[in-house]
Design a protein that fits this description.
It is a single chain. By secondary structure, this protein is mostly helical. It has helices at 2-16, 20-27, 42-49, 51-75, 83-99, 112-122, 124-141, 144-162, 169-186, 188-196. The longest helix has 25 residues, at 51-75. The N and C termini lie far apart (47 Å).
Length: 207
């Protein structure tokens, strides 16, 4: 099992290092790290370069999680790790690569789009619930960060309910919780601004 976990994390990290927002920005001769929040995720791409850039970055960041997770779930099919943990560990590697890409001096995004790929493969029911929750929160508050934080918190909460009875129950809960911890860590500045009422709202352009 340990060797499978290591492979999932390494392969996931390599895919995660493909920084969609950064590469798209370069096609427009813009370094997104020098604008707005300074991260390479879809929200900053949206604010900096517009809706097309935001959508392309979002889809690219989701895809870079789906592709390795699907491949490794087939490679390790019937193995000791099992489907859920293969998806989770591969996705965790992708999020780490996205958040801390070595070739960009470990300055990346916040991992929510990449984590969405994990959620899609982990549970379509949770995916549908999270879409409704995220859209509702962003529509009502205009805070993308708030919607992102709640979506990140939904993963371990859902796993705690849906995976009850699984032989890997505690293992799954722990890995799911790591996604939430990483999301809250990367959003720590957003959390402070949310509490202070100074967080940027959707629709505000980056400077």
């Amino acid at each position: 099992m340990i060797s499978e976990i290591v492979i999932c994390l390494i392969v996931g990290y390599c895919f995660g290092c493909f920084s969609t927002g950064y590469f798209y920005g370069k096609t427009k001769h813009i370094d997104v790290r020098e604008h707005g929040s300074g991260n390479i995720g879809s929200t900053n791409a949206l604010r900096t370069l517009g809706i097309k850039a935001g959508i392309i970055t979002l889809l690219g960041d989701v895809a870079k999680c789906l592709i390795p997770a699907i491949i490794l779930s087939q490679v390790f099919k019937g193995g000791a790790l099992g489907y859920d943990l293969t998806i989770l560990y591969t996705g965790l590697g992708v999020v780490l690569g996205h958040n801390f890409p070595f070739w960009l001096k470990f300055k990346g995004g916040k991992g929510i789009a990449a984590m969405s790929g994990v959620i899609i493969l982990f549970s379509l029911k949770l995916t549908a619930i999270d879409i409704v929750i995220f859209v509702a929160i962003v529509y009502l508050t205009k805070y993308v960060s708030l919607g992102s934080l709640i979506v990140s918190a939904s993963l371990p909460l859902y796993a705690a309910i849906a995976c009850k009875g699984s032989s890997d129950y505690i293992h799954i809960i722990i890995v799911c919780s790591i996604f939430t911890v990483l999301a809250f860590y990367k959003h720590r500045a957003n959390i402070v601004r949310l509490l202070n009422g100074t967080e940027n709202k959707l629709g505000q352009r980056a400077e």
